[in-house]
Amino acid sequence: QVQLVESGGGLVQAGGSLRLSCAASGSIFRIDFMHWYRQVPGKQRELVAAITSGGVTNYRDSVKGRFTISWDNAKNTVYLQMNSLKPEDTAVYYCAAPVRGTVYWGQGTQVTVSS
Known about the structure:
The protein is an all-beta fold. It is built from no helices and 11 strands. The chain has strands spanning 2-7, 10-13, 18-26, 33-39, 46-52, 57-59, 67-72, 77-82, 91-99, 102-105, 109-114. The strands form 2 sheets. Strands 2, 4, 5, 6, 9, 10 and 11 form a 7-stranded mixed beta sheet that branches. Strands 1-3-8-7 form a 4-stranded antiparallel beta sheet, with no helix packed on it. Strand 4 (33-39) and strand 5 (46-52) form a beta hairpin. 31% of the residues are buried. The model has no long low-confidence stretch (mean pLDDT 95).
C-alpha cells in the first residue's frame, strides 16, 4: 500500500508560480515512477509530468519550459514547480504512483489561475 498526499495548490494570477508537493508513505520502496496529472470538470484526466526514481523526466508539450518535476528521495516527496502559469492550467492536480499494476492516487489539490 502506498499513500499519497498533495499540497500547495491555490489561487494565483496569470504569470505567477506555485509549487505542488506530493508526500508518499507506506511501501515507498516499491515506487519507481511518479506522475502528476490534472483534470478539469467534464474532461479526462491528463498526464502533466512524470519522473523515474533515477531522475528521468517527461512533460506534456503544453507545460514544457514552464513546469519542473523533481523527486526528493530523502523526504519521499515529489514536487511540481509551476512557473508562468496560464488560465488554461486551472485544474485539480493529482499525483500518482504506479506500483506493480496498481495506480495509487492522492486526493488532489486545486490550482486556479486567474487572468
